């Protein structure tokens, strides 16, 4: 959570990180705890694309079409990353990965369907923390590429 707070401050963005009373390792759990829909949860999903990390910020209600993403990015090989790979590349555990605050920048894709929600919630680096943001702000702070992910 501290890495995320530091990254937000360094980018000149308001620190909206909140700590919840119980863990929210899934979009469904986060939506219930926050009183929003799964569609407004920006899941941070780490994939391996040609042996490098790829972060896809997808709606909590979306199932990422990896074949489509690989095709759009001109790659033949994309797969869900192992928990060990995720921790190594992000410094965060699966289920608590944030869109920022990683040791090194990670190539990022932002699911265009998230633009339909005025307020988005994203993980803040652990299973208890989330932060609110807008689609445009998330696009700006991550330097993501906008794509349809399904």
TrEMBL record:
PANTHER family, A to Z: CYTOPLASMIC PROTEIN
Any one Pfam family match given in the protein's UniProt record, by short name: tRNA_edit
Residue ranges constituting the YbaK/aminoacyl-tRNA synthetase-associated domain according to the UniProt record: 22-140
UniProt GO molecular function: aminoacyl-tRNA deacylase activity; aminoacyl-tRNA ligase activity
Highest taxon of the lineage: Bacteria
The protein's name in its UniProt record: Prolyl-tRNA synthetase
Annotated organism of origin: Psychromicrobium lacuslunae
InterPro entries registered for this protein in UniProt: YbaK/aa-tRNA-synt-asso_dom_sf (IPR036754), YbaK/aa-tRNA-synth-assoc-dom (IPR007214)
Keywords: Aminoacyl-tRNA synthetase, Ligase
